[in-house]
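Hey everyone, long-time lurker, first post.

I ran two proteins through the pipeline my lab uses and got sequence/structure pairs for each. Pasting them in order. The first:
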Amino acid sequence: MPQLNPSPWFFIMLASWMTYSMIIQPKILSFLSTNPPSSKAPTTPPTTPWTWPWT
């Protein structure tokens, strides 16, 4: 079964991960975020308990 032979596929996987790690990933990480994190504290809206009609 040729699928179990790691000889050609291991090199292809290793080359693609090295390409991703060294070339593509730094270019993607250099983009500015469209939604930067804000420094203000998150506020939670006031909640009211649900009133069930049968209780």
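...and the second, right after it:
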Amino acid sequence: MTVMLPSLALTLLCLLRAGAEVPVQPGFNAEKFAGTWHVTAAVANCSMFMKMKDGMKSSIATISFTVEGDLLMKLAWPMLDKCQKFELLFQRSGQAGHYVAAQEKKDLRVVETDYSSYAIVRELHQSGQELTAALQLLTREQDVSPQLLQKFKELIPTVGLNKDTLVILPKSDQCSEAIS
């Protein structure tokens, strides 16, 4: 265990450095951010994402915060005939809107949000020597306006991702009951 701690700390330091140039929503308000979101568009450099993106549908995320200020995200992804559920806990970092999951080696940043209709979230994940990044467009409703989609597309290259991997997720009510 004591041997793992330095390498874990080094990995997190690398994640934080890799994400240092990505801003966080100024004056981030966790209370306003909490609630139900739909993942309506995504872009990533992960090979698994590339293989699955053409069959993906809009998913549902419920975000809440612990008493300590940590972010709890419950996700329900529509799969062929079922909903795949995930629960992720991100610990708050020193900056509001920036969270880390040490065990999973993930770094999550709320890049931009208006709290009532959309949020753009960037996630880094360290797996072995591979560092993958994803950018997601979250909306309170499943519909996404052309203007908001354009804003999302313009942000993609600024976080080091390629617009060619963008997927606009088709609407799905398949998991609407699974997350409550």
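Reply from user beta_strand_b:
Welcome! Quick read of the second one: Confidence is low (pLDDT under 50) at residues 1-20. The first strand starts at residue 35 and ends at 44.
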